[in-house]
């Protein structure tokens, strides 16, 4: 029988076990399975066994995999080494997604292999943009830092 814990507001099952209704982020199992999916996909991309001509010579890096709570869908964040044009590869990745699911099924022991959805990873581009903004003289002045660090006193 489920009940709501007065202190935390969470719905609890028998013996105080949480029913998984928390929105605090992914569970440990989601993180662990996501990392295993990322590792297997990185190995497959490293072997470059694709029949699709758009992916034959593409150096693709899998940076992160986020799994849905039901493990039926996985968002795979990809980038290209040394290039920022990963968007042109997304249609090709969508075409080979069923083959990639088969490769995951052969390697991982999961009840259901997640459906793969590919997204470009823009975290590095965003970090470089923020770094550029933080180095602007106006921002340095507002932060109270002296931009001329080579004073001879």
UniProtKB/TrEMBL annotation:
InterPro entries: KH_dom-like_a/b (IPR015946), RbfA (IPR000238), RbfA_dom_sf (IPR023799), Ribosome-bd_factorA_CS (IPR020053)
Assigned GO CC terms: cytosol
First-listed, main subcellular location of the protein, grouped into a coarse class: cytoplasm
Single biological process term from Gene Ontology: maturation of SSU-rRNA
Keyword list, A-Z: Cytoplasm, Ribosome biogenesis
Pfam annotation, one family: RBFA
PANTHER family xrefs: RIBOSOME-BINDING FACTOR A, CHLOROPLASTIC-RELATED
Name this protein carries in UniProt: Ribosome-binding factor A
Origin species: Acetobacter vaccinii
């Amino acid at each position: 029988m489920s009940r709501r814990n007065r202190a935390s507001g969470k719905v609890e099952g028998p013996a105080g076990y949480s029913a998984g209704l928390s929105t605090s982020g992914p569970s440990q199992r989601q993180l662990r399975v996501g990392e295993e999916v990322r590792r297997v996909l990185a190995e497959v991309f490293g072997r470059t066994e694709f029949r699709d001509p758009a992916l034959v010579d593409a150096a693709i890096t899998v940076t992160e995999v986020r799994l849905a709570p039901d493990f039926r869908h996985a968002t795979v964040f990809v980038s290209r080494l040394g290039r920022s044009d990963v968007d042109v590869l997304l249609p090709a990745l969508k075409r080979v997604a069923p083959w990639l699911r088969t490769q995951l099924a052969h390697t991982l022991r999961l009840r259901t292999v997640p459906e793969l959805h590919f997204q470009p990873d823009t975290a590095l581009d965003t970090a470089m943009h923020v770094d550029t903004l933080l180095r602007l003289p106006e921002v340095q002045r507002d932060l109270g830092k002296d931009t001329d660090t080579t004073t001879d006193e």
